[in-house]
Design brief:
GO molecular function: peroxidase activity
Oligomer: single chain
Largest sheet: 8 strands, mixed
Pfam families: OsmC
EC number: 1.11.1.-
CATH topology: GMP Synthetase, Chain A, domain 3
Order of helices and strands: HEEEEEHEEHHEEEEHEHEHHE
Keywords: Oxidoreductase, Peroxidase
Radius of gyration: 20 Å
CATH class: Alpha Beta
CATH superfamily: K homology (KH) domain
Helix content: 25-40%
Number of domains: 1
Number of helices: 8
Structural class: alpha+beta
CATH architecture: 2-Layer Sandwich
Number of strands: 14
Protein name: OsmC family protein
Length: about 350
């Protein structure tokens, strides 16, 4: 298998989808819980890949910014934005590896440094600062021709689900126990910036083999490594959450923290909050099986529930306000500029 990438497995999936388009609908679900004693913990939940259920059981503690005044902050744990950047970069690189493998290309090395520009005037944490834009630097060895790599980068822009989810505005629905059409989150939800901010938060995502990737923080601390992979049904080895699950975990974790903040403002009590995020991907878009199939993630729903006693209307108001303050909801519901630079022949 070239690049250890199971092309025959993906070809088999493509044949199944041609026979039955319902097999192209991949449903992902995650859960993040905030408690005053443990902070935020993000979990993946079972995925439905067409008609096949995949048991996805990964747990990631999420770092809580010190500015939020929570004592269990752990700087080695990823922030919600770290999870989001990991999901975006890994999805882009997977699209490149898959597209290159299908063309008979063997990669020696491939990585991406992805950076989110933040407005330094809006606060001291990534929970306060709107994302002005995202910059991606793809590093590839020079064994692959530059013109071919340029074509693969073009495919990332057009057919990477997470890339398109960020560049194409998508609706986010808030589930607070009422019909979803009553809870559509309008955009913009925060002040959206056009130019790059004064600060940046970055991750370096490295392709390992097949559908496996590693994401490392800005300081390259070994303890900050996040593993990315596909489920076995998608030719992965279940090494870690996949790119869509990382993006959903980021959203759920940040909304959980925003809900905690809003509850503290209104009630002077943090409480325990649970946030579920789920979405669907029509894999025909990524595989180019149907030109009319959407590429970005679809049907994104964020469900917020308190796990402590609160009057119904009060916790619903808290949930609405928290989601409207969410930086990642803003990122998804508004088009965001994404710049991609390609660097060849640089050691990675």
């Amino acid at each position: 298998m070239r690049n250890s990438f199971n092309i025959s497995g993906f070809s088999e999936a493509a044949h199944e989808i041609r026979d039955d388009p319902r097999e192209a609908q991949y449903h992902y679900s995650v859960r993040s819980t905030f408690s005053p004693t443990r902070g935020v913990i993000a979990h993946t939940e079972p995925a439905l890949l067409g008609s096949v259920k995949s048991a996805r059981k990964f747990t990631i503690p999420v770092s809580t910014p010190a500015a939020m005044g929570i004592s269990m902050e752990n700087p080695e744990d990823p922030t919600p934005l770290d999870l989001a950047l990991t999901g975006i970069a890994a999805c882009s690189l997977k699209t490149m590896v898959g597209g290159g493998t299908a063309r008979g290309i063997t990669f020696g090395s491939l990585s991406m440094t992805i950076s989110a520009g933040l407005d330094g005037g809006h606060g001291s944490t990534s929970l306060d600062a709107p994302i002005a834009g995202i910059s991606c630097r793809i590093h590839a060895d020079d064994s692959v021709g530059g013109s071919v790599l340029d074509e693969l980068v073009s495919q990332v822009r057009s057919h990477s689900p997470n890339h398109r989810t960020v560049t194409d505005p998508i609706p986010v629905l808030l589930d607070i126990g009422r019909p979803l059409h009553d809870s559509v989150v309008p955009g913009p939800v925060t002040t959206h910036l056009v130019t790059a901010g004064q600060r940046a938060q970055a991750r370096r995502v490295r392709w390992v083999s097949s559908t496996q990737f590693e994401s490392i923080g800005e300081n390259d601390e070994p303890s900050s490594v996040l593993r990315v992979d596909q489920p076995k049904q998608l030719t992965g080895v279940d090494w870690g959450p996949n790119p869509q699950e990382y993006l959903l975990m980021a959203l759920a974790a940040e909304v959980a923290l925003q809900t905690r903040q809003e509850a503290l403002r209104r009630t002077r009590s943090e409480g325990v909050w649970e946030v579920h995020a789920k979405a669907r991907v029509d894999i025909r878009g990524l595989l180019k099986l149907d030109p009319t199939a959407p590429v970005p993630i679809q049907d994104l729903v964020c469900a917020v529930r308190p796990r402590h006693a609160l009057p119904e209307e009060e916790w619903r108001d808290i949930a609405r306000a928290a989601v409207r303050r969410s930086v990642l909801v803003d990122l998804l519901t508004n088009p965001c500029s994404m710049k991609i630079d390609l660097i060849c022949g640089v050691p990675v």
